[in-house]
Every structure is written in C-alpha cells, then in structure tokens.
From TrEMBL:
Residue ranges of domain HMA in the record: 2-67
Annotated organism of origin: Mycobacterium dioxanotrophicus
Superkingdom: Bacteria
Name the UniProt record assigns to this protein: Heavy metal transporter
InterPro entries recorded: Cu-bd, HMA_dom, HMA_dom_sf
Pfam families: HMA
Gene3D superfamilies linked to this entry: 3.30.70.100
Biased composition range(s): Low complexity: 69-86
Taxon lineage: Bacteria, Bacillati, Actinomycetota, Actinomycetes, Mycobacteriales
GO BP terms, alphabetized: copper ion transport
PROSITE patterns in the record: HMA_2 (PS50846)
Length: 86
C-alpha cells in the first residue's frame, strides 16, 4: 500500500472537496482518498504507487492546484474560492 499526501490550493468548502474527491477517485489505482478544504490536505492511498502527474492532473481537472508534500501543509488562509457555490 502506498500513501501520498498533497496540498491542494483553492478549496474552501464541502463542494470543493467533493469535486476533488470525484476526480481523484477516477485515477487508476487509487483505492481511497481523504480531502479537507479546511487544511488543503489530500491523502491518496493506492495498492501501488500512482504517478504524481496523474493526481495533479485530476485535481487540476476539478479546478484546483496540487503539489505533493512530505509533511502536513499549513492550513489554507486564502479567502478566494475556485467554486461557484461559496
């Protein structure tokens, strides 16, 4: 099992989380994800390593940016939203 953490920028609400969840879940090999708009944290679990580019592309498709992190990112302080619901 492989667990990889990313920092996602631009998420502000549950709708944002759901958009990221839907896109990342569709990446081949992903078995579980945890995503939080409050912290900007995305944790991807897979049976085998998934290419970082595939996760970043899926997050971008959802309308957000992502970078792989080695430790827990700082909570997002951005007040700008990428979604239309908040």
């Amino acid at each position: 099992m492989t667990v990889t953490e990313y920092h996602v920028s631009g998420m502000t609400c549950g709708h944002c989380e759901q958009s990221v969840r839907e896109e990342v879940t569709g990446v081949d090999g992903v078995t579980q994800i945890e995503v939080s708009a409050a912290t900007g944290r995305l944790v991807v679990t897979s049976a085998a390593p998934v290419p970082e580019e595939a996760i970043v592309a899926a997050v971008k498709e959802a309308g957000y940016g992502a970078v792989r992190t080695e430790s827990s990112p700082e909570p997002s302080t951005s007040t700008s939203s990428s979604c239309g619901c908040c």
